[in-house]
Amino acid sequence: MDDVKLAAIQDIVITIRKLVSAVHLSSSRMKKKSGLTGPQAEALRILAKDGPLSSAALSRKLFVTPSNITGIIDRLEKKGLVERIRGTKDRRISQLKITDAGSELSESLPSSLEGTLINGLLDMEVEEIRELGSHLKKIPELLQLPDSAPQVLTVESPPHFVEGAEKKRVFSD
């Protein structure tokens, strides 16, 4: 194998290691500062911005399955950060509402890695984004990861964007 090919492979492996490290560090910071996981913190951000939502609506905005959202909400509810408001017509349906404690905590949460990524992608042309996505999809294949069912979600518009100072769109924290 030639040196140029080996150097290119090494660059990819190092980049993946950096990404894994950044995700771990971000998660550790979030847990240390707030006692929340990344998805829990993001759920609070969404509920603070969008108001009461159904579990299904929140799961779509978080890009997680409905079964995952149940665990996230259970833990947030146990901490007194959100509450389930049962429907009056159908008690099986509830709205998730952030509590005062949850609102206060959501305002002090550190920036999310996901938000930084989304802002960076917004600065790229759509063809660049598609090409990057196409290349990234090859990594799980190369790692021979099981093909779990992809989540097909509809996103009307990025739910967490607000007008900001330095960029036209800034991911709200």
Task: Report the top-level CATH class.
Answer: Mainly Alpha
Give a count of the beta strands, DSSP E runs of length 2 or more. 5
Which structural class do you get from the secondary structure elements? mainly alpha
* CATH architectural type: Orthogonal Bundle
State mean pLDDT (0 to 100 scale). Answer: 83
**At the third CATH level, what is the topology name?**
Arc Repressor Mutant, subunit A
Largest sheet: 3 strands, antiparallel
The CATH superfamily name is Winged helix-like DNA-binding domain superfamily/Winged helix DNA-binding domain
Q: What Rg, in angstroms, do the CA atoms define?
A: 19 Å
Summarize the structure in words:
- This protein has helices at residues 3-34, 38-50, 55-62, 66-78, 100-107, 113-122, 126-136, 138-142; strands spanning 53-54, 82-86, 94-98, 161-163, 169-171.
- It is mainly alpha-helical and 173 residues long.
- The chain has a single domain, classed as Arc Repressor Mutant, subunit A, CATH 1.10.10.10.
- The strands form two sheets. A three-stranded antiparallel sheet has the order 1-3-2. It has a two-stranded antiparallel ribbon with strand order 4-5.
- Strand 4 (161-163) and strand 5 form a beta hairpin.
- The radius of gyration is 19 Å and the shape is elongated.
